[in-house]
Amino acid sequence: MTFSDIYAVYKDRRAAGAAEFAMTLPIFLLAAMVATELGGQFMSNAGVAHAVNEAARSATLFPIPSDDIIKKTVADSVFGVDARSVAASVEHGVNSQGAEYITISATARRNSLTAAFGGAGVVRETRVVWIGTD
C-alpha cells in the first residue's frame, strides 16, 4: 500500500455522513431518555402532590371526613403513577397549644425506563392540616 492509496482512502467522503450519524446517535438517544425520565419524574411528583393537596382540602371540610375517605381521596386524585402503588397514611395529633391537626402522607413507587438498571423511584408527599374548633 503506497502513500497515494492511503491518500485516496482519506479523500473518499462517501461514508462520512453514516460515520457521523453513528457517532452522534447514542448521544441523542441518551438525551431523549434523560428528558423522558425527567418528565416522568416531574409528572409523578406533581400527581402525588396534587392528590395529597386534594385530600388536605377535603380534610378541612365540616364535618371532618373519616380517615378512609381521606385515603380514598388520595387514591382517586393521583396521576402520573399507578394508583395501586400509592400508600396513603392519615395521622391525628394535637400541638402544645391544644390545636388539632391531621398529617396526610402519600408514598408511591414510580416505574421508570431505567428500571432494568435499578432506576425505579419513590415519590413522597406530606401535608399538615389544622382543624378549626368552635
Give structural notes:
With 134 residues, the protein is an alpha+beta fold. It has one domain (11-131). The protein contains three helices and three strands.
List its salient traits.
134 residues, alpha+beta, 3 helices, rod-shaped
The gist of it:
This protein is of the alpha+beta class. It has one domain (11-131).
**Strand order in the largest sheet:** 1-2-3
**Order of helical and strand elements:** HHHEEE
Count of the domains: 1
* % residues in beta strands: 15-25%
User: What structural class do the secondary elements suggest?
Assistant: alpha+beta
Q: Spans with pLDDT under 50 lasting ≥5 residues?
A: none
Mean pLDDT: 88
Tally of helical runs: 3
Count of extended strands: 3
- Computed CA radius of gyration, to the nearest angstrom: 27 Å
Distance between the termini: 98 Å
Task: State the helicity in percent bands.
Answer: 40-55%
Molecular shape: rod-shaped
Largest sheet: 3 strands, antiparallel
List the helices and strands and how they pair.
Elements: H1 3-11, H2 16-59, H3 67-77, E1 86-94, E2 100-110, E3 121-131
Antiparallel strand pairs: 1-2, 2-3
Helix pairs in contact: 2-3
